[in-house]
Amino acid sequence: MSVNSREKGKRGEREFAKLCRQYGYDARRSQQYAGGVDSADVVGLPGIHVEVKLRDVITEGDKLAFMRQAIRDSAGSGNLPIVAHKENYRQWFVSMRMQDFVQMYVLAADCNEVIGGVTEEIHTVTMTAEAWFAVYQEWRSSEELKKVEHIRFDRRLKKGRVIQ
């Protein structure tokens, strides 16, 4: 990898971390701190493994290769892999596996059923970063709400206020 390519990658990571902060998340580049090959490019989005790609042109084949890298690098972490990508002088987009998006969207929409059936084939959904952050924020708030409700239920159970 050339020096210019590395610098462009760092610039992309800083830009996406800045975008995350604009949405209220304490995000930062992770390479400068962790330095691991398999670490996420940006940290600070709970539950998400972020790979960042900044290129002149990004093809559908590139997106699939980037997604495979994110899946591989996030394996075992419990985090959903996403790819934040941007072509020069364009807006940010986020790609993620369709099954992860459906799960995130269903939970954010407070639905009771999640569509199952994971396959080996990778289906992705790509949306603007703005749209992705809207879904992510709803998902995070629903996850936080579930934690609060669970804690409240446990307290009521301990006090004998729950009918079983």
Task: Describe the overall structure.
There is one protein chain. With 164 residues, this protein is of the alpha+beta class. The protein has a single domain (3-158), classed as Trna Endonuclease, Chain: A, domain 1. The chain has helices at 3-22, 60-74, 98-108, 129-158; strands at 28-29, 42-43, 48-55, 80-87, 93-97, 124-128. The strands form 2 sheets. A 4-stranded mixed β-sheet has the order 3-4-5-6. Strands 1-2 form a two-stranded antiparallel sheet. Helix 3 (98-108) crosses helix 4 (129-158). The longest helix has 30 residues, at 129-158. The radius of gyration is 18 Å and the shape is globular. The N and C termini lie far apart (61 Å). The model is unreliable at 111-119 (pLDDT under 50).
Termini separation: 61 Å
% residues in beta strands: 15-25%
The largest pleated sheet is described as:
4 strands, mixed
* Inertia-based shape: globular
Low-confidence stretches: 111-119
By secondary-structure content and strand pairing, the structural class works out as alpha+beta
Q: What percent of the residues sit in helical stretches (DSSP H or I)?
A: 40-55%
What number of domains? 1
Q: Supply the number of helical segments.
A: 4
- Main CATH class: Alpha Beta
Order of helices and strands: HEEEHEEHEH
Query: In total, how many beta strands?
Result: 6
Q: How does CATH name the architecture?
A: 3-Layer(aba) Sandwich
Rg value: 18 Å
Q: Round the mean pLDDT to the nearest integer and report it.
A: 79
- The CATH topology label is Trna Endonuclease, Chain: A, domain 1
